[in-house]
Amino acid sequence: MNGAESLVQTLVDGGVDVCFTNPGTSEMHFVAAVDKIKGMRTILGLFEGVCTGAADGYARMAGKPAATLLHLGPGLGNAIANLHNARRANSAMINIVGDHATYHLKYNAPLTMDIEALAKTASDWVKTSRDAASVPKDAAQAVAEALKHPGNVATLILPADASWNESTGPVPIPEIPKPKPVDHKTIESAARVLLMGEPTILLLGGAALMEEGLWAAGRIARATGARIMANRSNGRIQRGAGRAVFDRIPYPVPPALKMLKGAAHMILVGAQPPVSFFAWRNMPNWLTPRDCKIHTLCTEKQDGVSALQALAEELDAPEQPAAVYERIRPELPAGELTAEKVWMALVAMMPEHAIISDEAVSSSRTADQLVATAPPHDWLSVTGGAIGQGLPVATGAAVACPDRKVFAMEADGSGMYTLQALWTQARERLDVVTILFANRSYRILHQELERVGVDYDCPRARELFKLTNPHLNWVDIAGGMGIHASRAETARQFNEQLEQAIHTPGPHLIEAII
Amino acid sequence: MNGAESLVQTLVDGGVDVCFTNPGTSEMHFVAAVDKIKGMRTILGLFEGVCTGAADGYARMAGKPAATLLHLGPGLGNAIANLHNARRANSAMINIVGDHATYHLKYNAPLTMDIEALAKTASDWVKTSRDAASVPKDAAQAVAEALKHPGNVATLILPADASWNESTGPVPIPEIPKPKPVDHKTIESAARVLLMGEPTILLLGGAALMEEGLWAAGRIARATGARIMANRSNGRIQRGAGRAVFDRIPYPVPPALKMLKGAAHMILVGAQPPVSFFAWRNMPNWLTPRDCKIHTLCTEKQDGVSALQALAEELDAPEQPAAVYERIRPELPAGELTAEKVWMALVAMMPEHAIISDEAVSSSRTADQLVATAPPHDWLSVTGGAIGQGLPVATGAAVACPDRKVFAMEADGSGMYTLQALWTQARERLDVVTILFANRSYRILHQELERVGVDYDCPRARELFKLTNPHLNWVDIAGGMGIHASRAETARQFNEQLEQAIHTPGPHLIEAII
Q1: Quick check: ipTM above 0.85?
Q2: Which terminus of chain A has fewer Cβ atoms in its 10 Å neighbourhood, N or C?
């Protein structure tokens, strides 16, 4: 078999059986190999950021990596922003980036770029296959690197001749080192902190924010009075009725400071100490009180769930957490449509085990507490702050979980970055309901202009934050990509359209004029 | 004034008065500065690749740089593909990339990336301003670097605190070194080659492809019998009735080899020796005959136009070129619509001094000779092979040349990468007619699958190259972004719609079903 075939076989043997792709000439042998080697599902994206964002969403929900197939440096460039998000989500992913044949590089043909340098800016592991014979070994290593706890972005650069020349057969995936266990001394030390009776926060990240980790943290909270929190941006959170209560630290600095005020200790469980999203002039960027002591139960490279369970045992904690979310189905909203009413309607109708991809930015600021009482669900945040994640992540999550309803909660500004994801949803008939908050502005930037302390009028700046003149007609845009789309201008219209979208399989978009 | 204000003032003083932007919080002081410092026009793009592509088109047509304003690493990531194209076009451009405040970087907040490393992959010059006091000097240097012949991509990274802290006033632009003149010995040596009476090709690149350079080359051709050629991808070509005849080397290898066959000498005038776009297995990638001697009249860093003029004088060449294009207005096409008929209709109706941004890929393969006899026009190619350039470049060209009609000749596959450019065209009421060749496939990839020598059926691969199921409705997509859009299914419909678009100012899109 040729290099491309042995690559595809190695990936499939390693359990990687979905590939989000936007291929070109240099990737043609990989594409052809998928017709020969069985077991790889290929999904076309019309822009590379859709592919990497979808692979991220897939990894978060499937708990295993997808591959992407990208076209040289420019294809990888288009993919960088969502690779950055994926890396911040600790999503496992294997990017295959085609390159010119090795002997062609010296001629500096138009597409020639330093792909390795580019890949390193948003990957945890990068390698260029030297020749066809090296491909299966390199591919197996890429899978192993991607799978290292908690998940890594691995990028394998594949010269066209390494793809088309004769290679060996596939190679098994090397053994993946287990995460370093949290030693008993560290558990005891955390327990001592918790038993001091001083105000203590358990700050969870990574897998600790899944149901099991939260449950263990809730038991610790019950035993010790500790508060459970998470940073604002996380790859995946399991929340909703019956699950343990915790708080996400808000984006604006004043309420974040308020939430953390008085903490004497913070115990990190696979999370970074909370800092502000940006540094704002005349505002602190370190959010915990200066005299709050930071302790580490485990890093993100360790197993936070078992560490929390061991800590709960150490504390002889009760079986039940301090608090679980009640199930509250709000009344269906009426009257004028607002962002909050959109969320209320969603919580009123949300099916069990829905998946929410949140990129609503200023329109999801108040959603947190409301949605916490919805039926159990998974919440996927923009992890690296790179806008243009929401629609692709929803796409990949729907591929990973065909039996679950996915809601893409999307802002009109954010949605425009990678709107091509809608076409992939239509093509693959994915069960995604996109709710498009149309406030027809980069509303957050109006707020930021005030936050940064500009002390004069800025009519021209404010003009730049308006998505009017012309306004975006999302019903037409989404319809033009084959999506069933409708517009809601009142709460009642929204309720009706949402109900219909929930009960009709396949992709929908509701443009909510707020 | 603060750093941002001194930056804007330095740019404006340096003649940089257009900024294509997609800003965020870290760029807020720059955005606000534009309300205080007069003379900078800011143009919003809803995706960063639109901004850098527009700045590229602007530079190609204005002959001077625009600025872009981008949001940290992810914003720059989205801009990379069109920066790569811009760099390959030798377009002058100044990218301002906001970064976190310097004291915030150590906290690894979500948006933190190695922006310098990313910028270096697609810039000729990169610098991070250390503090507010350094900003005006750094900005002046950025302008100078951008303006160095033949034009460079300069990227200045601007930490938020360098932007908001107090700075000095603006700084004048340092003197820009003149390009190294071509010495008389080189001119004589090229003349000797040309007078040997052996088959010789003058291969032009850069400014030599503007009217004046081509005219001088044509005179040389008349004096010596040399043939004039250009590589396939060039930043800007001036062609059409009354201008000197030359040939572009085709994309497919066999006709390229045929065109270059028999050449004993090739004289490079700011061009690279011709190589194939990709390396294809079992096909040569070096396109000139093995025994063809390559000579260099000048590099792209020198002034090709004056070199050609000096060479013409050295040869005592006649005033008229060997051949100029006749003006031929074809009959308006009728019947079924094809790509060729679209081009025929365009040539039949094209106004004087139109600008063509060509990203039609497989639909512009046969256009070359046909359009050469149209009225004088400028032709802008995809220079770096990064798809998603056509609509943004047309946008920037229209900003640079408000009195000229711009035609974006766009494929449906290519158009989807940066379709957000249409919104900017609508917002700025730019005089761009987008002609969207809807063959509803990545047609070139069907051809490439055959070229790469895959010898078995690939139904699944071919499925990946189809833009059907669902097909893209460009009338709805463009209409949803405020563009006047129509669909032509016959040649007659196309003729009518094109005529109307040409005579009605403002942006239009015609979806040509071929």
Answers
A1: yes
A2: N
